[in-house]
Design a protein that fits this description.
CATH architecture of the largest domain in chain A: 3-Layer(aba) Sandwich
Radius of gyration of chain A: 19 Å
Helix content of chain B: 25-40%
CATH superfamily of the largest domain in chain B: Aldolase class I
CATH class of the largest domain in chain B: Alpha Beta
CATH superfamily of the largest domain in chain A: Periplasmic binding protein-like II
CATH topology of the largest domain in chain A: D-Maltodextrin-Binding Protein, domain 2
Distance between the termini of chain B: 37 Å
Strand order of the largest sheet of chain B: 9-8-7-6-5-4-10-11-12
Distance between the termini of chain A: 23 Å
Structural class of chain B: alpha/beta
Largest sheet of chain A: 6 strands, mixed
Oligomer: heterodimer
CATH topology of the largest domain in chain B: TIM Barrel
Order of helices and strands of chain A: EHEHEHEEEHEHEHEEHHEH
Largest sheet of chain B: 9 strands, mixed
Radius of gyration of chain B: 24 Å
Number of strands of chain B: 12
Strand content of chain B: 15-25%
Chain lengths: 265, 334
């Protein structure tokens, strides 16, 4: 039983497709949808689901609550190279993170790793902690860990409306508006973070290695070139499933500790 | 360029709907000019489909257009078959004729030169079958030459009332290529009454005789009936009769009476309701053979190049489907 958070109606289509893909194999599965990541991790800990499709913050919190006994099974190729992008109005004259000192930065929902937690972590690394940047928090999709992208779009609107000088968003949202290529006069990227890891399939020791391996092997066999597999991969935003890149979570572990973000909701 | 807020709105609204759904976002007064180009570029980049930009709003479908319904253009895309009206005059004056054909109707023949060029261009335009109709094609003195041109290019079907297979017309029939030509003969009922009531006394008997002659001459014969919807209960005996004539089940074509041409009743068919079948007459290219004498179905008076006409039919059909799908999304009643 796999859990996922229903942050858009398309999640139903995706998981029905994945369930059908596993039907008739030694690793048949079903899925349960949750309204937020807190409930999903609770269900994983209670044994209601065997695997949780977790964001990076949900992973970090599951690790904290299981004292590291949980394990990551797989992720999307796009999850291994996720980034945060700080975006400003084109022609703003700002040229790097240091230029944000004393300026207004719009952040996405406070539980979004890409649009709130990690931007603050990277700002601190750039010497811009402790109030050196005026933060505008836009908590429009709390509980979904920013997965709806709504709070990131609100951050971009704040820049357009001159309520903020810059916005911190995920690379996926930056791509979704066509980066700075589609509307060259609108936005430009001020700064891109180092890559970090985003979602993964999280399991507890209660799921045997044998069952987990069978499921992951069949997951990895999804093929972009196969017309029956491709729609699901496109909807979920990947070309292939890959082994989890665990070192990509180190920055978020540090950020959560520094910012005092608790292991539960 | 479009106002960036429009793109942000599209990203947000599309992310909240299932694939295949459409959303409409208003444009502002500053979004004229190149806004449509930017929106089209964004749709291409994001994997969505631009349905429409007009009247101060943009409509976008999430993801790709759903697959067409089975049996519609999915199996036979518009332009796969090319219909040609060889002529409009006829030895009969059927009271439901969609082409308004009769002995008094002007011939308006397509002619050997245009048929030859159409057949040649059809091959290069993705057409896989030619269909000749009228009028009554066997009234033409050069029909055997027209058919030879067509069958040399592609498999061909010739529609006829089957009543003229005598004398020099029978000789013309005999010169046609049996391996590439199917004859489709009109017959509306298992007994003379129904058929003759629309087509004239004695026409049923001569049509049945024509079917037998064509079969004896070695042609594959399809039979096509035109029936008012109220007579659909009479199909059983009709199919049984066609079986006795040796007409294969797949060659028994039943079509509903259309309210077109001379018909004073029948189902209403329009460009909006018909999957197109590209049709060429001496007057131009039409949406469908059922409307080949009606200006509302005229696509262009320029027959050549044929590929351009086919492209135009396909473009209109794609637009029409997109708008119909969009409308069905816009007007849910519950």
């Amino acid at each position: 039983m796999v859990g996922s958070v229903a942050y858009t109606p398309t999640v139903v289509t995706i998981w029905e497709g994945i369930r059908d893909y596993f039907a008739g194999t030694p690793a048949e599965m079903d899925f349960v949808l949750f309204s937020n990541y807190g409930r999903q991790v609770d269900a994983l800990l209670e044994g209601t689901i065997d695997i949780a499709w977790n964001t990076n913050l949900a992973w970090v919190r599951t690790v904290a609550q299981t004292r590291g006994e949980c394990r990551a099974l797989a992720m999307r190729d796009t999850d291994a190279v996720f980034r945060t992008v700080v975006v400003v109005r084109a022609g703003s004259g700002l040229s790097g993170l240091a230029d944000l000192r004393g300026r207004r930065l719009a952040l996405g929902s406070r539980d979004s790793a890409q649009a709130a937690i990690l931007p603050l972590y990277f700002l601190a690394r750039a010497g811009l902690g402790n109030g050196s940047v005026d933060l505008l928090r836009l908590d429009s999709d709390v509980g979904k860990h920013g997965d709806t992208g709504r709070s990131e779009l609100d951050a971009l609107r704040a820049v357009l409306d001159d309520r903020a000088d810059a916005a911190a968003i995920g690379i996926n949202t930056w791509e979704s508006i066509g980066r700075d290529e589609l509307m060259p006069g609108a936005f430009e990227a001020l700064w891109e973070s180092p890559i970090y890891s985003h979602c993964n399939f999280t399991a507890l020791p209660a799921l045997s290695e044998e069952r987990a391996t069978a499921w992951v092997e069949h997951l990895f066999a999804m093929d972009w070139e196969n017309p029956s597999h491709r729609p699901i991969l496109e909807l979920e935003g990947l070309r292939r499933w890959v082994a989890p890149r665990l070192e990509g979570y180190e920055t978020l572990f540090e950020a959560v500790q520094e910012q005092g973000i608790g292991p539960r909701w | 360029m479009v106002n960036p807020l429009v793109i942000l709105e599209l990203v947000e609204r599309l992310s909240a709907v299932p694939a295949g759904s459409v959303v409409t976002v208003p444009l502002g007064p500053d979004d004229e000019g190149t806004a449509a180009d930017t929106l089209a570029a964004w749709c291409a980049r994001s994997g969505n489909e631009l349905v429409d930009v007009r009247e101060g709003a943009v409509t976008v479908r999430r993801g790709r257009t759903p697959a067409p319904p089975p049996g519609a253009e999915g199996e036979r895309p518009p332009g796969t078959r090319l219909w040609m009206y060889t002529n409009f005059d006829c030895n009969l004056a059927c009271d439901y004729c969609c082409a308004r054909s009769s002995p008094q109707t002007a011939r308006r023949a397509l002619g050997v030169d245009r048929v030859r060029r159409l057949a040649e261009e059809a091959v290069g335009s993705g057409v896989s079958e030619l269909i000749l109709t009228g009028g009554e094609p066997f009234l033409l003195p050069d029909l055997d030459e027209l058919v030879a041109i067509c069958t040399a290019a592609l498999p061909t079907t010739l529609l006829t009332n089957g009543m003229l297979f005598r004398g020099h017309r029978l000789e013309r029939l005999r010169r046609m290529d049996r391996s590439r030509l199917t004859l489709q003969i009109s017959l509306d009922s298992a007994t003379p009454e129904g058929h003759d009531s629309h087509r004239g006394h004695g026409s049923w008997e001569r049509a049945v005789a024509g079917i037998r002659i064509a079969q004896d001459e070695g042609f594959r014969v399809k039979v096509a009936a035109t029936l008012p919807a109220a007579q659909s209960h009479k199909l059983g005996p009709f199919h049984e009769f066609l079986d006795t004539l040796g007409i294969a089940p797949e060659d028994q074509v039943i079509r509903a009476l259309a309210h077109r041409g001379n018909a004073d009743a029948g189902i209403e068919l329009s460009v909006e309701s018909l999957v197109p079948e590209v049709t060429v007459t001496a007057d131009g290219v039409y949406w469908h053979p059922i409307g080949a004498d009606d200006t509302d179905q005229l696509i262009t008076a320029e027959i050549f190049p044929l590929a351009a006409a086919i492209d135009e039919v396909r473009r209109r059909f794609t637009d029409q489907r997109a708008h119909a799908d969009a409308a069905s999304q816009w007007f849910p009643c519950a």
